[in-house]
Amino acid sequence: MARRSMPILRQLCNFPSSNLTPTRSVTYMPRPGDGAPRAVTLIPGDGIGPLVTGAVEQVMQAMHAPVYFERYDVHGDMDRVPEDVIQSIKKNKVCLKGGLATPMGGGVSSLNVQLRRELDLYASLVNCFNLPGLPTRHQDVDIVVIRENTEGEYSGLEHEVVPGVVESLKLITKFCSERIAKYAFEYAYLNNRKKVTAVHKANIMKLADGLFLESCREVATKYPGIKYNEIIVDNCCMQLVSKPEQFDVMVTPNLYGNLVANTAAGIAGGTGVMPGGNVGADHAVFEQGASAGNVGNEKLLEQKKANPVALLLSSAMMLRHLQFPSFADRLETAVERVILDGKYRTKDLGGSSTTQEVVDAVIAALD
Fold first, then answer.
1. Distances from the Cα of 70 to the Cαs of 9, 73, 74, 317, in angstroms?
2. Is pLDDT at 172 greater than 70 in this prediction?
3. Cα 114 from chain centroid?
């Protein structure tokens, strides 16, 4: 009876059956003026940085994305980040950055660390996930590493006590530990993630990492719908390379986060495809999620075969941060199509394509 009545009902309502398929005509409702182009500070950086940031510029132009770049030349051997660059990021609120090489030893401090401190970019986020069509040892990997970005071993508090003896201080505060824990749980809550894992070495550094764990535990009580657990950093590394699919969101102090993010990136496909960003209350800097020393790879630079995928996906994160979700979706979909097709891949992904060939393929794959 119900089956017979359906055609009659359609006739009465004057609805052809094809129109009964539900559609969503509105996916994002902007406020007036939200479509105005946004200024973004651009730091091409060192080594392969100009090559991959140039790739992003080409794709943004091809998409007619509502952003324009204010370019500044900054290099890792400078004493400090120029003041006009800092002011540009403070004005624009958003920056896209290539890698900045950090000199080994000597008295030159890392400009990456300077930027994070100056702008209080307290949270580093790296998303490590399997890309369809890219063969890896492990499947079902989708890990978000959220790393405290302003203190810990990166505080730069070192001095020579006596000749031949150097003391390096690790600084952990309750304030910074609480706010990174809050960010991790809030990220998990807003992105429908199920679990947050705190990475630590509190069995040895009982006061410093103990304070970090205490802060994470306090914040965890406010999110009863999200599972919380803890893991010692050395066991964490072993579990990552043996069973990475068990992890979801990971929250870490500064140094551990760097190690964990690069390890997770290697498991999920390599540093060349992992996006990331550094965010604070007011500003955000987007860059390749895990660098693992490829910034200064001269051979990649000479052959112009640097992988632009990581920074392209980071720029998609940036577009979503700027509330341009449809442009972010288009860019991510185009990159995924190129990876899945497999015809254009750089050497680190098993291919022989140049950076420009990958960029041309991504542009061709745009809807």
1. 59, 10, 13, 19
2. yes
3. 19
CA distance 134 to 350: 9
Classify the phi-psi angles of 105: left when phi > 0, otherwise alpha if psi is within -120 to 50, otherwise beta: left
In DSSP terms, 129 is beta-bridged to 142
Chain mean position to CA 304:
24
Backbone angles phi, psi at 171, to 5 degrees: -105, 120
Q: Is 295 exposed, middle or buried (0-12, 13-18, 19+ CB in 10 A)?
A: buried
CA 102 – CA 121 distance, rounded (Å): 18
Sequence-ordered list of residues with C-beta below 8 angstroms from that of 297, at least 6 positions apart, any chain: 47, 48, 306
Say how far apart CA 13 and CA 356 lie, in whole Å.
54
Residue 233's Cβ-count burial label (10 Å; 0-12, 13-18, 19+) is buried
**Is 148 in contact with 122 (CB distance < 8 Å)?**
yes
pLDDT tens, position by position, 67-106: 999 999 998 888 889 999 999 999 999 999 998 887 765 5
Can you tell me the distance from the alpha carbon of 213 to that of 192, in angstroms, rounded to the nearest whole number?
23
- pLDDT exceeds cutoff 70 at 189: yes
Find, among 277, 273, 274, 297, the residue nearest to 287 by Cα: 277
Element (H, E) at 217: helix 208-220
Q: Per this entry, what is the length of the chain?
A: 367
State the DSSP string of 314-360.
HHHHHHHHTT-HHHHHHHHHHHHHHHHH-SS--GGGT----HHHHHH
Count of Cβ atoms closer than 10 Å to residue 214 Cβ:
15
Which of 270, 230, 234, 291 minimizes the C-alpha distance to 350?
Answer: 270
